[in-house]
Hints:
Blueprint: H1 16-21, E1 25-32, H2 37-49, E2 52-58, H3 67-73, E3 81-85, H4 88-97, E4 101-105, E5 112-113, E6 125-130, H5 138-144, E7 147-149, H6 161-178
Parallel strand pairs: 1-2, 1-6, 2-3, 4-6, 4-7, 5-7
Helix pairs in contact: 2-3, 2-6, 4-5
Amino acid sequence: MKNRKLKNSELNRKTVDEAMAAPRTPLILILDNVRSLNNIGSVFRTADAFLIEKIYLCGITATPPHKDIQKTALGATESVAWEYVEDPVTLVASLQSKGVEVWAIEQAEGACMLNDFHPTPQQKTAFVLGNEVKGVQQTVIDQAGNVIEIPQEGAKHSLNISVTTGVVCWDFYQKLQAK
């Protein structure tokens, strides 16, 4: 059989302990007032898939444990480091003071298109992802100073935050792997 679907037992998945001990992708995700528990869970799953260093949950963003986060996270809240910080502006400033390059994922004047974004190996980076309706707060964009936009050709010019997270994490991960 040419393209036989693999069984879960054939996927060579890491245990939670192995995943936590594995070298991490130098990327931090900051969720700015994300309201959907399912979206939060999906972000955890994506972060697990690409061994993202940490997730910060800010503002109204809910935190684990919560059954609706777990429904989509499927246990990834145990394999990805996370922390709640109420104010994302203060968090961004703190990360910047530690040498982290922070980028808001948003549609904004002067934004760098994702295809033109080239992460620097060994440079710790953070992506801020915003509310499902309002996006990343302007005060957070102002503090970050850097914006990445995902090029889109359709009529809506809008992606769900969990889809956006998958796109930008995959892009970051594969660009670092290519270097």
